[in-house]
Write a structure and sequence with these properties.
Blueprint (H helix, E strand, L loop, with lengths): L1 H21 L12 E2 L11 E2 L27 E6 L13 E7 L5 E6 L5 E7 L2 E6 L7 E6 L4 E4 L5 E5 L5 E7 L7 E2 H6 L7 H8 L3 H9 L7
Antiparallel strand pairs: 1-2, 3-4, 4-11, 5-10, 5-12, 6-9, 6-11, 7-8, 7-10
Helix pairs in contact: 3-4
Length: 225
């Protein structure tokens, strides 16, 4: 009986470990898997690998994250990604980063989610007000003011934002736990989907006048990814 309990405990641990593993990007069974384009019309959960013997340093390299970005846009921020699309060698490694530049006096990385990644952000310059909202039913706002050198974590899939509350520009670098974390910018997804969500649906969901919903659907929304 005691042996059976031990076996049951081991099986439980294996199941839990498998569940954790399935919640992240697929693990690598080799040193690396440099992404390459596969056959036309074929899609996989990740990217095809090129022959590792043909790998070059450029497959693992990206320059330019030191460059100050133009934030002259409707939200006052610019996101510069460094994921598998820019660095093919990230394929299967389960990590990527972004640089975010924020305009002075309110530059905003608007509310968004990363469906496949937790994010950890470090402030390099400036002062940011950041936060995320927990899931239903509480929808609690967890928020903090960050200064240079401060770090903050945004849990996977939760809606979050950052805003520059200082009078000078701000810069942050964020690491994400996926080679391709994805971005869903909330306003753009809701009011600028193609084809559009029925205004009747949005009117009832947001409990506002239909003319306001139609106005919001007529706007051009900044994706910022």
């Amino acid at each position: 009986m005691k042996l059976l309990r031990h076996v049951a405990a081991i099986v439980t641990l294996i199941v839990l470990a498998t569940m954790v593993a399935d919640a992240t990007d697929p693990g690598s069974l080799q040193d690396f898997c440099v992404a390459t384009n596969g056959p036309a019309g074929v899609f996989v959960n990740g990217r095809f690998c090129k022959d590792p013997n043909l790998a070059k340093a450029k497959d693992f390299f990206l320059s330019g994250l030191d460059i100050v970005r133009n934030t002259n846009n409707p939200v006052g921020s610019t996101v510069t990604p460094a994921n598998v699309a820019q660095i093919p060698g990230l394929n299967t490694l389960g990590i990527s980063i972004v640089r975010v530049d924020y305009a002075p006096n309110g530059g905003l990385n608007p509310p968004h989610t990363h469906p496949r990644a937790t994010e950890i952000l470090v402030v390099l310059e400036g002062t940011l007000s950041v936060g995320f909202v927990t899931s239903n039913p509480n929808n609690t706002l967890i928020t903090k003011v960050l200064k240079k050198g401060d770090v903050f974590v945004f849990p996977v899939s939760l809606i979050h934002f950052q805003q520059n509350i200082g009078k000078t520009r701000a810069v942050a670098i964020a690491a994400l736990s996926s080679q391709n974390p994805g971005v869903i910018t909330i306003a753009n997804a809701v009011f600028n989907s193609k084809p559009p969500i029925s205004s009747d649906v949005l009117t009832k969901a947001f409990q506002v006048d239909k003319s306001l919903v139609q106005y919001l659907q007529s706007r051009s929304w900044w994706i910022n990814n």
